[in-house]
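Worked Example 4.2. Read the sequence first, then its structure tokens.
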Amino acid sequence: MHLEDYALIGDTHTAALIGRNGSIDWLCLPRFDSNACFAALLGTEQNGRWMIAPADQEHRVTRRYRPDTLILETDFTTKDGTVRVIDCMPIRQDHPTIVRLVTGIHGSVRMHMQLILRFDYGSVVPWVTRHADGLHAIAGPDSVYVFTGAPTHGKQSTRVSDFDVQAGQQVSFVLLWHPSHEPIPSAPDAAHAVKETTRWWRQWTSQCCPGEEHREAVVRSLITLKALIYAPTGGIVAAPTTSLPERLGGVRNWDYRYCWIRDATYTLYALLAAGYKEEASNWRDWLIRTVAGDPSQLQIMYGIAGERRLTELELPWLSGYEKSTPVRTGNAAYRQLQLDVFGEVMDTLHQARRAGMQTNERGWAVQTTMMECLESKWKEPDEGIWEIRGPRRHFTHSKIMAWVAMDRMVQDIETFHLPGDAARWKRIREEIHQDVCDKGFDPARNTFTQYYGSRQVDAGLLIIPSVGFLPHDDPRVQGTVTAIEKELCHDGLIRRYSHHGSQSVDGLPAGEGIFLACSFWLADTYVLQGRYDEAVKLFQRLLALRNDVGLLSEEYDPASKRLLGNFPQALSHLSLVNTAYTISGAGGPAQHRQSTEKTSPESENHAN
């Protein structure tokens, strides 16, 4: 199965991926970052899957989400009739549950169900027994009940069922996980669960303010983002998957089931612009709680409840998505130094204040302590925005975001009358600005560079005008955009950075797809530069890369025309939402972040 063939369902605690063939190939229970019980996505069907599809292999498939919901409807049409499989995860109350409702549309269709439960990422075969209403599988801490009226039988460590569905008939399957030491839970009524889940999602989407232009794409992305928010804490995972490769057959396979600080401002803008102030507030509160502590220990990512230790392991028993190994859990990049996260934290909390979301005294104390740490740390080399696993460098983007941190500190003191020495932070702000313009700019090529002394460019530099470091019409900004278009553009889309020779700056074997968020950033830049038609054209091109149910991954390969990387990717959908608002004039981050420049007196002095 290609990534484009998968759809997402979720319950705001975890999520599952379902293929066009009716197979759930990925599901972690009970949380996004828990061990998977269906891991065929990263191995074979023997690593766990749950398929419901016609027994006749010759069938046609169409699918869609119910409007304004995360309920998937897949229609299978055979020579004998049509059935619809309705898949959803009811919003979590007690235990994670998957409902699969098979409904006859016309004729009579012979259906086949195959359930292969494998706990701990496909490595543990559970003990399966029958119970009055279906099956019970147990192994260690995990216990799964499957409730169904369809007859099942064992076959080579799997459970299968073959049954006929007539027009108007419904056959339900309900999978429910719970800790194995707890009593057996009762099964929900499948049809009622689908009805209530539909109502919940439509009530949530009714609060949205998407605007008429691009409404379908914006609403679908917002629903996807809501599904990636871990409801108990407000943290949002970068993706619900791990180890989906940035290059097929390659080693760039990372675990994205964590919360990246870098996505903070984009998340806040997307939620606020769409009218979801509660989710934005929960995300802001998650951020303050999570970064609290010794600022020298600030991480680039955290667990969904704010966990700090994300130990990286390899799972050798999994063959990888299309043989892309290793398969990893955890992410060693949590130990990296990335100076830009200081800027992201400060900018996010500044924008929250501008939106009327007041931060308490503890929050401001945390920020002040962070800035005292950054005062000396900004001069250090780091691993940069792209989490290189090569030598640390003085990345230009990192220094610019350190400037953003200082600038937002000044603005918070002056605009919101918060306690602090504005003059002190202004001096450092100007020192960083001068340093970047002296060392991060190549006057011979009229472009800012990836790192000090480099001749390469980096798509991360597209944020220069949007964060207010320099105005969009500054010749240096225009030269940088031109260089990025010339050197990083492939088939009309933008790569993160260049890969020269056998290895690139990131210390890994060269080669990856187009990083989709970067192309959205370029569209934002076009709007700022008054290149509106080019922005719309690029945005429409990006919309066309979504799969048939409106989902985007992290990257895209123009050569094979396939999605790559973890899926669906929060940053891609955040960027889609924000660019849609920027283009419509409703004020995406490219416009709002830039407007902070105008409130800073020092920002007028940019003739360095």
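Now turn to a second chain, presented in exactly the same format:
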Amino acid sequence: MEPPATEAVDGPDRPRLVLFRWLRPGLPPFISQHLDEHVRCLRHHFDVVVIGEDCDYGEVCERHRPDLAVFESGVYAGPRRITGTSSCPDVPKIGFCNADAYCATRSVFLSDMERWGVETFFTLAVAMPEYTPEIADRLFLWPNFVDPGVYRDYGQAKNIPILFTGSQAPHYPWRSRIHGIVAPRFPCLTTPHAGWFDDSAAGNMIQGSGYARLLNAAMIAPTCGTIARDLIRKHFEIPASRTCLVTERTASVEAAGFVDMENAVFADQGDVVDKLQFLFSHPDELRRITDAGFKLAHSRHTMAQRDQMLQWLRLHRAARPGQRIVQTGPFEPLRLIDAAGGRGNTPPLSGGLDRALLREGERLLDRGRLQDAETMFLRCLNYHFMPEPVLGLTRRHLHGGDPREAIRWVTRSIERGLVHHQAQDPDPVEWAYFVRALICAGRLDAAAERAQQFPRLRHLELERIRWALSVLRGDAGRAPAPPEQSAGRPSVHALPRLDARRWLADLDSMLRACGRAELADSLAAGVPARRPASGADALADAVTALANRRRGLDAVPLVPDLPHVRLRRRLGRSRRARRDRADAGSPRGAIRQLAQREDLHSALLLRASASSWSTRALLDGLSSNPNSPEIVWVDEATPILRAGRSRHPGRRVPWRGMFAEDDPGCAVRFDLVAVGAGGGSPRVEERGALQAARFLVLTGINSAPMHLVHASLIEDEGYALVTHHPSRDNGCSVFRRLLG
């Protein structure tokens, strides 16, 4: 028997909540549905008024008399303007961060909250406290949920064995890997995903009750919690539709009450095939697990159970002096404790894949292994754009003596917040490193201009670099030493904590690496940096300006000219969207996505040409793979006159270097092997590499002998054909070796 649809309950004692929400235009219908679900959930517990236009806070409070004001910001925020937020201090305010834990809009959210005077925050992302440690003690979880009137048992015939829904972008690595393993072995239905922001591209995506009925028609549906190993809607939508949830074992999933082989199935690439075979051969067990998951979702994870904001309001009213509100788990009730003692908020640690890469990058950077640190930060960015690896790359290039590259990296993150998401000010740590990079480039006047561009922006890192700049410029009234502490805006960046002495040593190291020993000496002595003689000022300024323009140091498009920057970004996004749409479903797109999304650590190119269609797609995907796979070329077949040959990634080795002399069949193992069209039949020495690879890319299959290799793989039950193009590169095909 299916549970009834949950409706809001009216009553005279329901507190009134005003939700300030400004949405960007053109959002797809399924995103609008998610946003509407948030409002309907709040209406279970509050009388809700939504404000979505420019307004004065005092006038809104006077008109609606709210008991609680909620300010939403994050990834879907559009143009927003509200005045007078310092009025009506008796109305408690909380901020709602609607974004993934790793999303760059975390800094936009913090900027908005600082401007609006909000100091208590809620979020849907269970992993968010780990990603924003500076606000973790005042960040509460309002986890995802389902509307039981939509996600329920419709009695659909279970005619879809396995259903894959949602994105398989790089930041869903578990889902992509499992799909690659499962799809060749079991009957599957995979639905397309057209993104989260473009109504014209994503308008045809299935949503609402149609999506719930599709889920209900499936026996099994896998999903994951992104690179953050978080808890997303699908974790609840799937079991609530009476479908068996297959997912990755994470702390967040276990905190929600899911238990392996009881009410869900935990799997990884090593055991997913065995577990699915067991479920299909034991339908009673599959039905038992499915029913238990259905019961869990409808008893603990519907709108009715998401009253955390109401709990907070009641505790806020009841709190005595010296007490504070804490949340000991994402699904535990909020409670009051003495502020002087007791543990604060204790969410489960997500163990995000990107966080592990960041920690390793920081460790390598601290040890001076700059190139290895850069690899870790780039691997992190290949999953998704995030501010933390961008700042890591900024610091890496300053330590490596390249302020131009450091400026290029840090301004990418700053512009994303200021221009694309229309934040009023940047992240303070990023701005401090922008100023630091300008100093390392010798541009003290430009650094001084930027240091004062946001005078109300405060953070210890920013105050310290402002102090260093005042010393170098000889400004009066400077402090005798860099500050040891400073109250200010929270940042998304959790840098190593350095005392003033170690902070100065770090800056000194960067200045000297960038060829600014005179600035480092001046700072160490506490005296202003020497300026050119007055007669040479004009000539020196002209020469410096010309040199900076040639080196790209003046290319810092941070306010003004914002409309032009927005236009460039829109054009860039549209070009990428057109390319992705053209590639969608094509063999070229399949090769590129396979190389980008699969868990690859090494690739061998045998007699491949960098000018060929398939190799270009392969290299494009490998360059964006989060693992930064090693690329090895044997007998490269690129025409010798091809421009830029030396820039092709990877290392070139003779074929003998890849195989053991005493056992020619013993080859170094590679995850992927691509065989070029120009060679003959694979040598005996190369067959071991082919047989060991998980993926094979063959070109020239329209001619012997590669046609024979292609035909043998078609007949081999141990391989599945991924894609095939009959004419490109004289015929091209891609195979996946099946596991187990």
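Notes for the reader: The radius of gyration is 29 Å. Residues 358-531 form a domain with the Serine Threonine Protein Phosphatase 5, Tetratricopeptide repeat fold (CATH 1.25.40).
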